[in-house]
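Q: Second attempt. The first request was missing the SMILES, so the protein and NAP are both included now.
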Amino acid sequence: MGTFAVQIAKSFGAEVTGVCSTKNVDLVRSIGADHVIDYTQEDFTRTGQTYDLIFDSAGYRSLSDCKRVLGSNGILVMCGAGDGRSSVRIMARMLKALLVSRFGRQKFVSFIAKRNKDDLVVLKELVEAGKITPVIDRRYPLSEVPEAIRYLEEGHARGKVVITV
Ligand SMILES: NC(=O)c1ccc[n+]([C@@H]2O[C@H](COP(=O)([O-])OP(=O)(O)OC[C@H]3O[C@@H](n4cnc5c(N)ncnc54)[C@H](OP(=O)(O)O)[C@@H]3O)[C@@H](O)[C@H]2O)c1
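A: Got both inputs this time. The predicted holo structure:
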């Protein structure tokens, strides 16, 4: 999801900072990120830099950590489920976001994708205009779907994993 988020944000003229691990730094820069932070080397919540919008497609950092680097009118969009193991943790984070958003100008929103034709048309046009290039990490034949899922569950896919039919 992160690889699409970087390219979509760039296509709308945003200055983009990508956060990823060392092996993905060149990839994230190659798809248009203006700045890249390697989270194995640097804590993006302690750089002193603040952001107008944080699109959290990972979900590993606490709200208070993210709040530290959110601009005074900033928005945190939470869509990553971290390791996804604790639905209680995910629910607690969403509830806390609702509460924190009531007090202050910063907004903390949980985002669940809803497929709709209008958004798909926008994505199609961005792909056709060459503003989005899907990053494909691996291809698996249909017979190897279990391997594909196992690889995805490691949580470090470099772009999309494709099943060829
Ligand atoms: N809200 C929604 O509608 C929605 C829709 C689809 C997916 N999701 C959720 O969003 C998350 C990402 O989905 P995806 O399809 O992009 O997953 P993915 O293809 O498995 O990618 C996971 C990414 O997370 C990065 N990552 C892992 N640990 C990290 C950390 N500690 N800090 C920063 N980045 C880290 C990995 O990059 P590195 O290898 O560089 O660490 C990897 O690129 C998942 O939790 C998924 O369940 C939500």
